Amino acid sequence: MANLLGLKLHQRLPILAGAYPCSSWVTCTSCSVPKISKIVKKWNTRTPRRLILGLGASFWAQFMSMNDRVGGKSFVASARQTGAVEQTLKNVEWPEQFPFKDEDFQRFDETPDSLFYEAPRFVTHIDNAAIAALTKYYSQVLPPSNTPGVSILDMCSSWVSHYPAGYKQDRIVGLGMNEEELKGNPVLTEYVVQDLNLNPKLPFEDNSFDIITNVVSVDYLTKPLDVFKEMSRILKPGGLAIMSFSNRCFWTKAISIWTSTGDADHALIVGSYFHYAGGFEPPQAVDISPNPGRSDPMYIVYSRKLSTA
Ligand SMILES: C[S@@+](CC[C@H](N)C(=O)[O-])C[C@H]1O[C@@H](n2cnc3c(N)ncnc32)[C@H](O)[C@@H]1O
C-alpha cells in the first residue's frame, strides 16, 4: 500500500524532549514510545511551542485529512517498531507540490548561525554505538579508500566525519560553520566555512562529487530544497547522497517541522527534500540503529543522482 504524507500529533511529540547535546538528556533515546503519554500530558499543560513558532502547523493541517488514506492506521506508528522508518519511504504518493510552508522552517533561535557555531565544539553528537553503526554503514557503501579520482563532500562537517579509520580519497571537502573544527578534521583534504542558511549555493563545479554525506545536521537546514538542488547539481550522475540522523538535535536551531515530529516522520521529511529537489532516484530509508532502545538510534536516508540528470 502506498504511503501518504499523514502524521498524527502524538507521533510528533516525543522528539520535543530530545534536546541536545544531551549531557543531561543522555536518555533522549528513551524519549520515544514508553514516554509518549507523559509527554503528551506535558504538552497539554505547557505553553504550546507550536503556537509560538507555528511549528509545523501548516504541515499538520494539510495532511491530517490524508491520514485515513493510509489504510486506517498510520505508517509511522513508532520508529521503534521494526522497520517503521524503512517502510516510511516505500511507495510514497508525494503530493504534487512541496508540502511544507515557510513557518515549518523557522527555528526557536533565529539569530545568525555564525553566533551559535562561533565557538568550536570538539564533542560527538551521538553515542559511540551509533557512531560505530554509521562508520560500519559507510564501510559498506563508500568507495574503497584511495580509489583514484573519488571526491567526497561532507556537508555540515565538523572535526569528525565518522568515515572508516584511515579512510582517504583524492578529495574530501568539509563544509561547515566552524573553522577550528574543520581544521581539526583529519580526513578532510580541504574545507569551506559557509552558512548554508544564508547562502545555499554550494561553491563547487557541476558533476564533481561521487558522494555527499551529512551527519546529524540535515535538520538545521532552513532552505533544504535549495541545498538539495545544489547537491544534485554537484553530484556526478549516479553519485550518492547519504543523510544520517538520530533523535537528538540542538532543538533551538533545528527547524520546527523537525522538532515537532518523530523519527519516521524525519525520514519522510528528508525523503521529500530529495523528491522535490529533483534529479534524484526515489529516496530510501535504512535503520542502522545499533541497540534499539539502549543506544542512540541511527537512520539513513539516501538517494543517487539520476544517471541521466
Ligand atoms: C550537530 S553538529 C554535527 C557535526 C558533524 N556532522 C558530526 O557528525 O559530528 C551540526 C553541524 O552542522 C553544521 N551546520 C549547522 N548549521 C549550518 C549552516 N547554517 N550551514 C552550514 N553548516 C551548518 C555545523 O557546522 C555543525 O558542524
UniProtKB/TrEMBL annotation:
InterPro entries found in the cross-reference section: Methyltransf_11, SAM-dependent_MTases_sf
CDD domains documented for this protein: AdoMet_MTases (cd02440)
SUPFAM superfamilies per UniProt: S-adenosyl-L-methionine-dependent methyltransferases
MF GO annotations: S-adenosylmethionine-dependent methyltransferase activity
Superkingdom: Eukaryota
Boundaries of every Methyltransferase type domain copy: 180-242
Protein name: Methyltransferase type 11 domain-containing protein
Native source species: Liquidambar formosana
